[in-house]
Amino acid sequence: MPCEDVVAETLNPEGRIVRLERTTWEHLLRRHPVLEAAADEIMLTIAFPDYREPDPRPGRERYFRRLARFGWLRVVTEFAGQTDRIVTAFPQANHPHERGSTR
Questions:
Q1: What element of type H or E holds 82?
Q2: Fewer CB within 10 A of the terminal residue: the chain, N end or C end?
């Protein structure tokens, strides 16, 4: 069961637990208010990504999901011991394969 500092958690395709922590969620909402009603979509992006790739930063991974209201949703996770954690999420208009991803 998640502790009160965890807003949501899911399993990635390999079965690792990934958590959305309250401080990260509050940060995301300040930077991207459009995500206010998107916590479930963020977690579904991790559980059922349409595309995945390593992040340029070691120990991180990018998950993408095509969503009608955003175009693409990008969620970046960081390996954090027993569980992984979400470090950021944001909508982007272009396909993940395209260079110059827009926020």
A1: none
A2: N
